[in-house]
Amino acid sequence: MVDRAHKPSALSPSTTGPQPTVHSDGKKVTASLPSGDSVEVMLYGATVISWKSNGKENLWLSSNAHMDGSKAIRGGVPVVFPNFGPAPKNHATSALPQHGFARISNWEYLGTTSSESGDQGKGSDDSIRLDFGLTPNNLSDDMRKAWSYDFSLQYSVTLSKDGLQTMLNVRNQGDKPFDFQTLFHTYFTVPDISKVKVTGLSGVRYIDKILNATEHDSKGNDLRIEGTVDRVYKSFPQDTTSILVDDKPRLDVIRDNMQDTVIWNPWKEGAEAIADFAPKDGYKNMICVEAGAVNGWITLEAQDGFEAGQALKSHL
Ligand SMILES: O=P(O)(O)OC[C@H]1O[C@H](O)[C@H](O)[C@@H](O)[C@@H]1O
Fold this sequence. Notes:
Low-confidence stretches: 5-14
Number of strands: 22
Radius of gyration: 19 Å
Structural class: mainly beta
Mean pLDDT: 93
Bound molecules: 6-O-phosphono-alpha-D-glucopyranose
Distance between the termini: 35 Å
Largest sheet: 9 strands, antiparallel
Strand content: 35-45%
Number of helices: 2
Shape: globular
Strand order of the largest sheet: 7-8-9-10-22-19-18-13-16
């Protein structure tokens, strides 16, 4: 799957209608649709750093984010694998850093597929998929030693009008099972956190990481952010979590084969303590809604595969 030959960095122009454009400079892949939607993905971490709908940004990116591959990128959509949070002691992931190695490894760009559904006029492509791959060959020696399983990841980022889908395909290429967690650590930008409501949490139990990881029942359907929030909502009955601004839908996160969602805002104190979080009052303009499989571990048998993801919809 990830051995697929590299594809050309730009699609050839066509006479059939407006076409998506794709550009890769070896560090970043950028794709745009005729509708004014665009996405930028760094090969470092396969981190989506920008997703625009109609030219308007949906994601938050720290102005102090490290873009040189020296540290996980603070903002956008970092990919968490194979452990979420600090790795537990006495576990196969114990020697790995917080949130694993996927967000701090250099991925390969595998190529592009565009498709037409006819919505934007005859002959025009209205979605474009960018594929990225990661295998042990792409890991640093330290990471390979710390987690020595034979795996492959294919990460597909599909841009469509008002939508972005991210799908992760995990394969165990080896002869012994491994356990993993995964999550899309999506930082959304919002105009004013005091006007934000998160819905779709009704009836979901959560682990509150700032209350000694104690478990609670969500009260009511809506969550307002009025201080530090760091919660793992687990085993959702419903697929969609939404961000509303002034009671109007702004963004939807639709899980596909992922049961959990982390809601995180570091607030003032947290932002102060995170060196690459800038500006320091940026917590007023962001919220992380992180779809994942992080409550417990997924065991992948030898030669088995797992696929899961999220579809993001923008109402901007
Ligand atoms: O600072 P990072 O390693 O990027 O982690 C940022 C945050 O990620 C998740 O949302 C966790 O639930 C938080 O506990 C953590 O602080």
